[in-house]
Amino acid sequence: MSERRLAAYLVSPSLIVIALVAAYPIGYAIWLSLNQYSVIHPGLSRWVGLDNYKDALTSHDFWSAFKTTFIFTIISVTLELVLGLIMALLMHSAFRGRGVLRAVVLVPWAILTVGTAMMWKTIFDADLGFANQLLKALHLPGSHTVWLGQNGYALAVMIFADVWKTAPFMALLLLAGLQVIPDDVYEAAKVDGATAWQRFWSITMPLLKPAILVALIFRTLDALRIFDLPFVLTQGANGTTSLSLYAYQQLTQNRLIGPGSALAVLTFVIVMTVSFLYIRLVGGNIRGLAEET
Amino acid sequence: MSTAEVTQERVASRARVREKAGRRPGRGGQILVWVGVLLTIVFCLFPFYWIINTSLKTGSELSTGHVFPHHPSVDNYTSIFKNADFTTALKTSAIVAGSSTIIALTIGSFAAYALARLRFKFKFLILAIILSTTTFPPIAIAAPLFKLWTDIGFYNTYQGLILPFLTFVLPLTIYILTSFFQEIPKDLEEAALVDGATRFQAFRKIVIPLAAPGMVTAGLLAFIFAWNEFLLSITLTSSAHRRPVSAAIAFFTGSQQFQIPLGTIAAATVTITVPLIVLVIIFQKRIVAGLTAGAVKG
Description:
The complex is a heterodimer.
Chain A: H1 3-33, E1 35-37, E2 45-47, H2 51-58, H3 60-92, H4 98-110, H5 113-123, H6 130-137, H7 153-179, H8 183-191, H9 196-224, H10 228-233, H11 243-253, H12 257-291
Antiparallel strand pairs in A: 1-2
Helix pairs in contact in A: 1-12, 2-12, 3-7, 3-9, 4-7, 7-9, 9-12, 11-12
Chain B: H1 3-21, H2 27-55, H3 75-82, H4 84-117, H5 123-132, H6 138-152, H7 159-183, H8 186-194, H9 199-210, H10 212-228, H11 231-235, H12 245-250, H13 262-282, H14 284-291
Helix pairs in contact in B: 2-13, 3-13, 4-7, 4-10, 7-10, 8-9, 10-14
């Protein structure tokens, strides 16, 4: 059997599965989004062209979900990068028990998000939550904050819960990047009299750039698709409705298949656009994986 | 770069890492590092501790902020195991996450081998297509499948979850396995080919056993991702007998309406998380290697 033929046999099962469970549904979603379906008479539908998109793009709710999703993404990914970098540098600096720290850092990542979201909900409860009791015990202001009940604060809790869960994950990605930076570079810089701060900015950061970019892609795309946190924490109340949650609500709670599908497709387009922009930036990494052989 | 060179390079870089472990920051720096480490541990573990703490409280103590349960009890644990919805959900999750992991490992290992070893056209394009599906928002798949599954009777079934789970489990598996296969020296396989083995025999008898650690890593990660999946789970199921644990927890109801049954939710979260955490701790090195596969290349 020729190499090419064998490759075709080996790759095709995966490609067929992906075509069936990913590509076909997306195509079907586009089709659904171009029709209007009767709520009263199931099965009845009519072609409406781009009307569902027009409605979505001119609605206040869509843009508010868009804004929420991007604010959430930008702030949480930035915080995760900073915290993740600090944790990665800590794990990297020589000390015993690095293995313990690595295991600890994996705990938030492995815990069921829905379960932790419910915990955060009770920790941030206005009357009996631990957060307010802690503020009170420490005599800090804000011990009567209705965390999940008002705009801004609710989003802040959502960001906090996400940062808690994924900053450690970011740290692991960055640690892997730190470990391949050769030590001699630092030694040379030290000999030349560079300070620790200078070494960090002119050696660590540039050499860590590929790892940072990959970690940023992973996290940004995940954050743009956020669903479970707002679903559990607030059901989307108080300015926490993300794009995914908005589409879900239209689809399942309001049974609006046409408009809901249009929202799902718009979410897809937004995420794909962002990932395309990122991959233009770091395309070399994926190409490298394909061409390393 | 030849394989031998790559291997040498890896050995050398590992040696450098070890060397680095011998280098210590100054005394002030060391204190700073320890404070940071302590803060990191508290930051990562406190919420998990809080869940355990909550799971051991019952009745009126649940609404208190006691840092230790004053009257610890395992009632919540006994009650969730008496709850048929929860035990059924555990079974559903095991079946759904297990099946999608096994399917992904099987067909994913074929694809990964081809991508790592064989020369063929459109390789980059195929890899790009496979990887791009990991970026699909689940809502864009859930929306059409919600209608499609209802039409063909897959709604609220095992296969109705296993199939869409493959959209994220399969690319992840292929990605991890491809980078693991690339690390297996080619010489062994070539020797087998010279001895008259077919490509497939070489794959089954040499590459697969050598890639076993990679398979374990990919399988674990795939299973954890499938186990924790939420959006598809709640959209494509409607009744307790086909709901995976992640969805079931969101639908737990308290003794009174509108009351969140905190104690049982906490106990359920602990119960379904502890096995994962144990796995993660045992296989931490492999999991980290899998999560960071490719992250540090080029």
